[in-house]
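FORM 7B: Structural annotation worksheet

SECTION A. Query
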Amino acid sequence: MPRYTYASYTLDLALHLRLPPCSAWIKALPGQAAIRVFLRVPAKWIILAVFAQQKTNSLSAPDADVLRSTTMTQTVNNDPFILAGTSYQSRLLVGTGKYKDFDETRQAIEASGAEIVTVAIRRTNIGQNANEPNLLDYLPPSKYTLLPNTAGCYTADDAVRTLRLARELLDGHKLVKLEVLGDSGNLFPNMPETLKAAKTLVDEGFDVMVYCADDPIQARMLEEMGCVAIMPLASLIGSGMGIINPWNLRLIIDQSKVPVLVDAGVGTASDAAIAMELGCDGVLMNTAIAGARQPVLMASAMNLAVQAGRQAYLAGRVPRKYYDADPSSPTEGLIHSRT
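SECTION B. Predicted structure
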């Protein structure tokens, strides 16, 4: 069974992850004493101090797996998602529609690890209808941040009216998702109406996350208007086609000073991972989970995909080399056969 020293394993892991500055206790390793790992990682150097409470100098492979898992968790915890001044650990936002019932909705959202859940005010009962099941009984606001949205709205006036209603139903809730559709067939955003509604809502004190086309110019206009997050579509809502135009998405990401989240079009876990690898701050999805054969299992897969994509983005992929190979093993000091 391979064995790893505290220092060599932790240093190797830190270098490969390019961990940001952090400090953490890694405790209760099976069969080993707790250790304290303190990392400082400026651009070109790393200082690592490891203190063990027992006179042991090695980790077995299972213990090394615990160290790896715990360090990964610390990486996520030291990379919070900041939205409208609030910090979240999960970068996956999920919708609440298309499930067979509210119980399946609850199970899937728990499996996703999401902290922010979207609610279509025109389609989901959150108190408007006293005699119908209430989503808030399954997803209480004390546990989740609710994100009222304007799904089904085709004019700025309808969208604004819907979110004013949401604010009343949720006792002054400010964080909302704006979407104004332009066509019932492709559900593409109507950008002139979106811009009009966004200005009204921002002026009224709402924190607006906005569904929009993958147009860098209009995305900049929405940000300058005061929207707290830009949410370009990856492809058509519910299509499952994944990210059709990664180049436009990167243009929006690179220019934006507010979070950018992919909204619409994710079909499977790899789509979510790619969005995060491109540099998105998060991903919002509904159909990809609710429409899967096993929604709860898919929700778990999406949770892992978003985390993996974010870590890959932070780690930094190797550059693409279209015409040159680069051997993984050293080419010097090779053992040659006798001639």
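SECTION C. Observations
The chain is about 35% helix and 20% strand. Residues 6 and 300 are 32 Å apart (CA to CA).

SECTION D. Sign-off
Analyst initials: ____
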